[in-house]
Amino acid sequence: MKRLWHWPIDPLARTVRLALGEKRCAIDLVSVLPWAQPEELASMAPGARAPVMVDTGAEEKVSAVGTHAICEYLEEAIPTPRLLPFVAQERAEARRLWRYSEDSFADVNATLLTERVNQWVRRAREPDSGALRTGVHALKSRMTFLNGLAESRTYMAGRMLTLADLSIAAHLSAYDYFGDVPWDMTPDLKAWYSRIKSRPSFRPLLADKVDGTRPARHYADLDF
Predict the structure, then answer these.
(1) Within 10 Å of residue 8's Cβ, how many Cβ atoms?
(2) Helix 88-104 vs helix 163-177: angle between axes, to the nearest 10 degrees?
(3) What sign does the dihedral 150-152-153-157 (CA atoms) show?
(4) Residue 15's pLDDT is what?
(5) pLDDT at 146
(6) How far apart are CA 216 and CA 62, in angstroms?
(7) How many CB atoms lie within 10 A of CB 139?
(8) CA 155, 157, 163, 169 torsion: positive or negative?
(9) Transmembrane stretches, by residue range (predicted)?
(10) Alpha carbon 217 to chain centroid distance?
């Protein structure tokens, strides 16, 4: 039995959910508000915050905290299908872009995504227009780089779907929930995302609904 503590719009948790979906792994989902982390998570490991996964079906109970710990554990526990290539050089490239995704989108999460959540979900205050502009500019910059990869590669890290694809798609999907992704400026990235979005593992994400808001009209449309 596997249980995942997550918040539906969190890009890091979405990466884990996509990995679980690709591996066709059943999971019990527990929704956790990012601004109100329960004490039970801290009891699993000092400073633990969602996403957190517990696997009680292994020989010994396993608690994995954070996207990398969870996804690397899943690669070992459920090796098929592989989400990190067998060839060392290709595996290194997948890990590089997986890390790039989390690092480079961090400022978009801290500005654009945080402001949308504050505005539409928490209803906490008026959005910070400066933070929104900063986030939109950062997002466009990342998309330009990723469009170059999508233009020259079948998948982000090369020939096969990897955790790099899942991480990048997870982040873009969170912004796309609020309609903030300027797809028309990056046609190759849009075509790549359409293919990832059409995979069975993506269906639970496209069905997400968060209290207080609705996804953009095109969000669940496989043809945009």
Answers:
(1) 17
(2) 20
(3) negative
(4) 98
(5) 98
(6) 37
(7) 23
(8) negative
(9) none
(10) 20
The 3-class secondary structure across the chain, one letter per residue, is: CEEEEECCCCHHHHHHHHHHHHCCCCCEEEECCCCCCCHHHHHHCCCCCCCEEEECCCCCCEEEECHHHHHHHHHHHCCCCCCCCCCHHHHHHHHHHHHHHHHHCHHHHHHHHHHHHHHHHHCCCCCCHHHHHHHHHHHHHHHHHHHHHHHHCCECCECCCCHHHHHHHHHHHHHHHCCCCCHHHCHHHHHHHHHHHCCHHHHHHHCCCCCCCCCCCCCCCCCC
Write down all domains in the chain, each with its CATH number in brackets.
Answer: 2-77 (3.40.30.10), 88-199 (1.20.1050.10)
- Residues listed for the chain: 224
pLDDT of residue 16: 98
> Which pLDDT belongs to residue 2?
94
**Mean pLDDT for each 10-residue chunk of the chain (224 residues)?**
95 98 97 85 85 90 95 96 97 98 98 92 81 97 98 97 98 97 97 98 95 90 89
User: Which of 48, 101, 95, 107 is CA-nearest to residue 71?
Assistant: 95
- The first and second tokens of residue 6, run together, are 């997550």
Reference 136, options 89, 182, 205, 94; nearest CA is: 182
pLDDT at residue 40, rounded to an integer: 86
Q: Which two tokens stand for residue 15?
A: 């990466």
